[in-house]
Write a structure and sequence with these properties.
With 351 residues, this protein is an alpha/beta fold. It has helices at residues 10-24, 43-46, 93-99, 124-130, 142-152, 193-203, 223-229, 241-250, 265-272, 303-315, 317-332, 336-349, and strands at 2-3, 31-33, 55-57, 71-73, 87-90, 108-113, 136-139, 156-158, 180-184, 211-216, 234-237, 253-256, 276-280, 295-298.
């Protein structure tokens, strides 16, 4: 596998899960990361200044996931360090572009598409071009399959990413006198954080006891967020998996205001831990967010509608409990072992 970066994200969490589980199924797995665009600062990373070879972060050194495979950071974009393989997996448009000229012995090329990156990335045209490359496409949602077919004439196999229920498991029972609404902060506009704040603000006059809880990995100091929101809220910076599970399990409602998502792991993890979901129609959410059955769904970029759904759940405990129970069951339909077996079959059928 070749990835664009190794920092915390839902997509990276899923890729690491596949890599770890394929290793357990007697596959030999190597994980490479593209060279950085900024100057290295850590001592280990400075080694690339002196040695023209990948920097290796050992297994078990990812603080947000127990990675079982060392991370090999490439010093520059060259196939020199890519070993011969049966399968080569690109995981983002930059890695697909890197892969297009690799020699055949580097492996049959697969493209794990986790978002329609040409919708939001800085290099929209370059991203779009990679979707037309003659790689076997694997997508993580029904929506992405339709995007690949509609915009690029490409067929794809769908592997909806499961939640790791060994980690993200909770109960729908809540005993909060103060309802807790959990939301992710991200600085990408399309993550809709400002819309989520606007939606929550609508509830304050009718449900002043409701408490907003935010987690994220972009800002260590949340003061700018408090200033922009006009009020303070509980904030958690870079929670570990166990800390994130505890946050999900403490939340009555998970609020997802994104304009679009390839799938959306945080909402799914929250559902697995017993939170009721209030979300926008992100595209990727089609596979788990069914309006009035497993979630309350509003149009994207519509904070008023999102806020109305949030107020509905804050006032209707019976509906909140029903959606939470149905949502949890929906997430439990997905299974990591089944996905890994199917992924191996896709490799065999297309190699």
């Amino acid at each position: 596998m070749v990835n664009q970066y190794a920092r915390i994200s839902g997509g990276n969490r899923a890729l690491f899960e596949y890599a770890n589980r394929l290793l357990e199924k007697d596959c030999e797995v190597r994980w490479f990361v593209m060279p950085p665009r900024v100057k290295w600062t850590r001592p280990l990373q400075k080694l690339r200044t002196f040695f023209d070879e990948p920097t290796i972060e050992p297994a078990g050194k990812v603080d947000w996931l127990a990675n079982k495979i060392p991370i090999e950071i490439l010093p520059r974009k060259s196939e020199k360090w890519i070993p011969p393989a049966d399968i080569f997996i690109a995981t983002a448009w930059q890695t697909a572009e890197f892969a297009k000229n690799l020699a055949p012995e580097k492996g049959r090329k697969f493209y794990f598409v986790q978002h329609h990156e040409s919708l939001w990335g800085r290099y929209k045209n370059q991203a779009a071009q990679t979707y037309r490359l003659p790689f076997k496409k694997i997508v993580i949602s029904t929506w992405l399959k339709e995007e690949m077919k509609t915009h690029y004439g490409q067929s794809a196999d769908v592997l909806v990413t499961p939640v790791n229920r060994e980690v993200f498991q909770g109960t729908t029972a809540r005993n909060n006198d103060t309802p807790r609404v959990l939301m992710l902060h991200h600085d990408y506009d399309w993550k809709g954080f400002a819309d989520g704040i606007a939606a929550f603000r609508q509830t304050q006059s009718e449900k002043p006891s409701a408490k907003l809880v935010v987690f994220g990995e972009k800002l260590k100091d949340p003061t700018p967020l408090f200033r922009d929101a006009g009020f303070e809220f509980e904030y958690h910076y870079r929670p570990t998996q166990s800390d994130l599970r505890d946050l999900y399990s403490s939340a009555d409602i998970y609020l997802c205001p994104s304009w679009h998502e390839g799938l959306g792991m945080p909402p799914m993890e929250a559902m697995s831990c017993g939170s009721a979901l209030v979300t926008t129609d992100t595209g990727g959410s089609w596979d788990y967010a069914i309006h009035n059955e497993t979630a309350l769904v509003s149009p994207p970029k519509d904070p008023e509608s999102l806020g109305n759904n949030l107020k509905t759940l804050l006032h209707d405990e019976g509906l909140r409990k029903r959606l939470a129970e149905n949502g949890k069951k929906k997430i439990e339909e997905l299974d990591w072992d089944a996905n890994c077996d199917r992924l191996l079959n896709i490799f065999k059928e297309n190699s």
